[in-house]
Design a protein that fits this description.
0% strand, 82 residues
């Protein structure tokens, strides 16, 4: 089964420093979503959450799981999700 855009983005953010920095430099959830779309990543908040949950279950160790949790919290903050 092919990776969803959300899964692909999570993977790419972990290995592509420029992509990660660009995302972290976004001012708010709207500019962040536009940044992702401009880079070919189109997904819903629900798809993002599913991708995070899947990756967390597959995490190789506690450090990798903690990284995924940090990304989840950053995304929720940027998107205004409680």
């Amino acid at each position: 089964m092919p990776m969803s855009d959300a899964e692909r983005l999570l993977h790419d953010m972990r290995i592509n420093r420029d992509l990660r920095i660009g995302a972290y430099d976004c001012e708010n959830g709207i500019t962040m979503q536009a940044y992702f779309i401009a880079h070919g990543y189109v997904f819903t908040d629900h798809e993002w959450e599913n991708a995070l949950s899947s990756l967390r279950l597959k995490a190789r160790d506690e450090e990798a799981a903690a990284e995924i949790i940090e990304i989840r919290e950053w995304y929720k903050h940027m998107r205004g999700i409680t």
